[in-house]
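User: Quick sanity check before I run a bigger batch. Here is a single chain. Can you write out its predicted 3D structure?
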Amino acid sequence: MSFEKSEEVGELFAALAKAQGEMGSAEQNAKGNWGNYSNVQEVWRTWQKVGPKHGLALLALPTAASSGRLMMSLRVILGHRSGQYIAGEYPLNPTKLDPQGIGSAITFARRYGIQAITGQVSGEEDDDGTRASEGIELYSEDGDMLRAFDPKGYAIEFQKRMDGIASKSGDPDRIRRTLKNLWLANVSSRGHLPEDTQGRLRDRYNATLAKISVKKELK
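Assistant: Done. Predicted structure follows.
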């Protein structure tokens, strides 16, 4: 996710820290093919309970650009009443370029974008360590939970999935977006890994993106 901010962000982060201290987890109120998750309405409700009263507002704006091929993204902005802001772009990768396909991609991106920029997580308020004992959940680039692994197994499988995406033939821009979707879908899960493992995965991710860019230049 590309990132930008206002010149000053001190007041924004002070307000965000207060909001995060009160926010709690979003309830996993919807059931998907691979388990329960928080739908976008629950993600929004959880944020709205705490954000506005601390002078914080969220916007999620679909954008599109064309450089030979249509490129779509969702621009997520977290703003403070002082005028300070942080913003990020979440790439959209709709399965079909029709209103339904684009709408589904926007809903998916809103859910992950809002949780990423506010630090919100999904799950029970206190599961007494049960989920941690079950392992770290690996998510697909489409946001489906595949299975849970121990930290070492998760890192191995995540690398395999990155390599599998990078090895695909086709439009390099689409492959890059798919890889970015995989990375963003696993933001929360990677947070449970040791810091050195997180660093190795980040380096592998950046190297893989660079490799795809080289492939594009050679086409």
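Confidence is low (pLDDT under 50) at residues 125-133.

User: Great, the batch can go ahead then.
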